[in-house]
Design goal:
Layout: E1 10-11, H1 18-23, E2 33-38, H2 60-74, E3 84-89, H3 97-110, H4 114-117, E4 122-127, H5 134-142, E5 147-153, H6 157-163, H7 170-182, E6 186-193, H8 200-212, E7 217-222, H9 230-236, H10 245-261, E8 265-268, E9 271-273, H11 280-286, E10 291-294, E11 299-302, E12 305-309, H12 313-316, E13 327-331, H13 335-346, E14 353-354, H14 355-365, H15 369-382, E15 391-392, H16 396-399, H17 402-411
Parallel strand pairs: 2-3, 2-10, 3-4, 4-5, 5-6, 6-7
Antiparallel strand pairs: 1-13, 7-9, 8-9, 11-12, 12-13, 14-15
Length: about 425
């Protein structure tokens, strides 16, 4: 899903909509990636801060009607061919099979999917293990989906209960096999560590179980306590204690070592893949490329501009703007912000950042910044946290403090 960046934003006027934001963006060559947000869930997990709802009003059909209008409105700004599609949520696999058929047909009719069909692109759908069925996998495969991301989170029932995840751990393997049987050739698993009460032995067991399923990609995220989530409220009430930093670091090191031994390597701090199996869509985010976004709360990045669709389904279903969604947040192009975002995401990647390009970009809007950035890089090399090369790439020890290193680099851009 699109990263929740923490850089300053400004509120857009209430009348703002995505069509107005796109009007100033060139239609050629177009955004090469498309994110679609499906908000429906059968239960709101306590740690989740993405927009999702338990729909008691049967609005799935109305949602797809509205989504098709938005996709039609967005299509002129898409690259031909499109490189990647990612459908996240919520729980996209909760959408009814007949509505998936409609959505996939609309995508095929509105966008050039030839690159994806040729195996040179990527079409991912997030799935909950409980909602994966042979029918759904067959529909997705026939509609061009070639990758599923399965929300395992843990194989320990007590830890799933702590997260308020309601699925049988055994259904993760079942979901993987159903995807393969349908011809969806690429599968990824999501896992969470540093769950309250989790021990290194329990986390090792989760990793070993995930590796035994032989997927090409595994994402491992430390549990974060986002504002306004039930998990954070429980923490504040003292219902449990969060994992301390030293344990979290130990779990991260265990993750890296065990997954490497299993044939996958880190291409981003929290993401591991076999060679060539990296998530191409997420790489587009982390490389600060362009993407269109459809669905409530979906965030877009086109022409240096960023915006976020209205996050309430009732608001999203409003058809006032010729298919485009109303937007709540909008950022005009800004060289300083763009470089800060490049540092924030690029330093987390194994490929790192080309220092010459970064220094040139910094000097274009802040003459003293290149010297300050170079001094930071030199210090980090001496400390063993940055590799000694023309690219700014974190060492294994540097990855442990990636967030702190990003802050140091970004501070060098201050006036």
């Amino acid at each position: 899903m699109p990263p929740n960046h923490s850089l300053p934003i400004r509120q857009a006027p209430p009348s703002a909509h995505a069509g107005a934001a796109l009007a100033a963006c060139p239609k050629s060559p177009g955004a090469a990636s498309l994110y679609i947000h499906v908000p429906f869930c059968f239960h709101k997990c306590h740690y989740c801060d993405f927009y999702s709802i338990v729909d008691s009003r049967d609005r799935q059909s109305a949602f797809v009607d509205r989504l098709e209008l938005e996709l039609r409105a967005l299509a002129p700004w898409a690259a031909r061919p499109l490189h990647t599609i990612f459908v996240g949520g919520g729980t996209p696999s909760l959408l009814r099979p007949d509505l998936w058929r409609r959505l996939l047909a609309s995508l095929a009719g509105l966008f050039d999917l030839s690159r994806i069909a040729a195996g040179e692109g990527e079409f991912t759908v997030e799935c909950n293990p409980e909602t994966v069925t042979p029918e759904l996998m067959s529909i997705l495969a026939s509609g061009g989906v070639d990758r599923v991301s399965i929300g395992a989170q843990s194989f320990n029932e007590a830890h799933l209960k702590a997260l308020e995840r309601r699925h049988d751990p055994d259904n993760v393997a079942r979901a993987v096999e159903l995807a393969r049987a349908a011809g969806i050739r690429r599968q990824s698993l999501d896992l969470i560590f540093a769950i309250p009460g989790q021990t290194p032995a329990q986390w090792r067991s989760d990793l070993e179980t995930a590796l035994s399923l032989n997927t090409e990609h595994i994402s491992c995220y430390a549990l974060t306590y986002e504002p306004n989530t039930a998990m954070t409220a429980r923490l504040k009430r003292g219902e449990f204690q969060r994992a301390d930093e030293s344990l979290e670091a130990d779990l991260f090191l265990l993750t890296r070592d065990l997954i490497r031994a299993g044939g996958l390597d880190a291409y981003e701090v929290s993401n591991f893949a076999r060679a060539g199996a990296e998530c191409r869509h997420n790489l587009a985010y982390w490389r600060q490329e362009e993407w269109l976004a459809a669905g409530p709360s979906a965030s877009a990045h086109v022409g240096g501009r960023r915006w976020k669709n209205a996050p309430r389904l009732d608001d999203y279903l409003d058809r006032s703007f010729d298919g485009f969604s109303t937007i709540l947040d909008f950022e005009e192009p800004d060289a300083g912000r763009a470089l800060s975002e490049r540092l924030m995401t690029g330093l987390r990647l194994r490929e790192g950042l080309d220092s010459t390009t970064v220094l040139a970009a910094a000097g274009a809007f802040r003459p003293r910044a290149p010297a300050r950035l170079s001094r930071v890089a030199d210090r980090l090399r001496r400390q063993g946290w940055l590799q000694d090369s023309d690219r700014w790439t974190l060492t294994d020890s540097g990855i442990l403090i990636a967030d702190r290193i990003v802050v140091d680099f970004m501070a060098a851009l201050d006036p």
